[in-house]
Amino acid sequence: MKKEYGMIQFNYIRDLVTLANEKSITIADIVLKYEAKKSQLSEEFLRKQMKENWQVMKEAAHKGILKNEKSASGLVGGDARSINNYLSKDSENFSGATVLKTAAYAVAISEVNAAMGKIVACPTAGSCGILPAAILAAVEKYPVSEDKIVDALFTAAGIGIIIARNASIAGAQGGCQAECGSAAGMSAGALVCLAGGTPEQIGDAVALAIKNLLGLVCDPVAGLVEVPCVKRNGFAAVHAMLAADMALAGVKSVIPVDEIIEAMYKIGLAIPKSLRETSEAGLADTPTARKFEGQIHKI
Q: Which helix (H) or strand (E) holds 269?
């Protein structure tokens, strides 16, 4: 059911695009007004809160890059630093500096989460590295004002609201497509916003990012948000950046973004329970994973 707060209402990405075009405002403006009306807080206060969230995101990224701290299980930790060190070498690499920096930041933030550090769940803890990594790497290459970064974050928030309302952002309900897939869509839209793209391009970026992660299962080893979650954040952040570039280049999704979100919901229902965060199947059921599980959870 479509929710309404004053004159601002949206339940689909197409609503955001239509409102932005009709009112000659940005998607970020729409989401900010929606949140202000819903929370009964001022837009100024909400922007201040988002700036604080951005500071937490940056701190987590830099902490994860600098430290070599392992998680309590010992399964993850130090990979972000390795990627960053590899990037810093004089030798050639296949991916390029921006891609590797994006992956390093995403893994770094996810490693901080695994080590019980402070992160922003965007939209979840399991996918916390994707959005901040994509934005941080982007603004390091093309510096913009903090206000523009905040606009990008509100754009991402609006996309997340719509996905949560029409599909799911929980791995236990929809598989990892609901977590890393949703975060990739949010990130792609945020990047297009940063680049000054149109509302239509934001919608296409979300569509391109999500539809190519449809069906992604949630099969965490030993039930922990570590393997494959941490490194998956790195891949999804890079995936989001490519989706944004494609949309900005004029590539359009043949299937409309709202239909893709509906498809994600239906696919989530079809994914068996064993592949929805229960650690009963997939990578979690490999011999190596079961060995680690026994070591980690032994009494």
A: helix 257-270
Mean pLDDT for the chain overall:
96
The whole-angstrom separation of Cα 223 and Cα 284 is: 8
Question: From start to end of the chain, where are the E strands?
Answer: 4-5, 8-9
Predicted TM-score (pTM) of the model is 0.96
SS3 of residue 4 by DSSP: strand
Give me 52's structure tokens: 């604080």
DSSP 214: T
pLDDT surpassing 60 at residue 210: yes
Classify 168 as helix, strand or coil.
coil
Q: Where are the alpha helices (DSSP H) in 73-169?
A: 79-88, 97-114, 130-141, 146-166
Q: 11: which DSSP letter?
A: S
Please name the amino acid found at residue 104: A
Q: What is d(CA 151, CA 271) in angstroms, rounded to the nearest whole number?
A: 35
Angle at 58 between CA 118 and CA 63, to 5 degrees: 60
Phi, psi for residue 218 in degrees, rounded to 5: -110, 105
CB-based contacts of 158: which residues, under 8 Å, 6+ apart? Answer: 10, 16, 27, 28, 30, 31, 34
